[in-house]
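Session log. Operator J.P. requested a structure for one protein chain; no other inputs attached. Running the standard single-chain path with token output.
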Amino acid sequence: MEIKKYDSVRLMPAPPATYECLRTPLPIQADGDLNKTVWQKAPLSPRFVDLVTGHPAFFDTRMAALWDDESFYLSFRVEEPNVRATMTERDSFLWLENDVEVFIAGPDCYYELQVNARGTIYEVFYIWQDALRPGSFFDRPEFDLYRRQVDILGGFQDVSRYGRHPRGKRWAFLDWDFPGLRWAVRVDGTLNDSSDVDRGWTVELAFPWKGMEILAQGRPLPPHPGDIWLMSFSRFEALEVNGRRLDHSPGWALNAHGVYDSHIPECFSRVIFSGEKIEI
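Structure written below.
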């Protein structure tokens, strides 16, 4: 996958992480239970790190992924001593509390999914403005700027220090839903009860390859062994210190971006699709 070079990648404390995604011999039911044999056999990622510095995160967060000819499967294991989630309406601003997030990039677009401990989700599909033109690959009804719910994403939040992404702005399609997405959450503890100590929560997701057609932009689906896709796996944690909530929730990811911004495809982790099957 060709990605246009972005000079600010030099801000990254280390190169992007790589994750080898093995094949599963059986389809996976997304019910939030990560005690399944397939997930016990899947390679578990390293502990997430601070999005800016690359230092180890306060709480342990890890991901694992598998694939077959039908779907891409993803799981999160989230350590959380006080599991909290209040938002129940789909497409609520989940990053304002605690969530896990996945970004999946195409050459000229990317998809964002957020999930909280209640199983509420938030989805957005982003297209670089220079790629959405009449007659282009994205010239289709679901990306009609006059009929869809659309916002604009600019660049870095701290423009004075980091500048903006050289590709400019992105159209954010707020009403786009991933076709056939399946997901589930399980809480190991008591939700929204600070009187005890929880172990955390787990998330399980299944993305059918049929729903990846726009993100693939002509790449083979399912991927061929050896194909590399850019994806970001992260978590945001709303914290209070001395009775005051931090202005910016700590962000933790599989690899640091060097800046407090999740929306830099060049900094996404590299997922390598392997032809090797796990044995169960």
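Operator note: The two ends are 32 Å apart (CA to CA).
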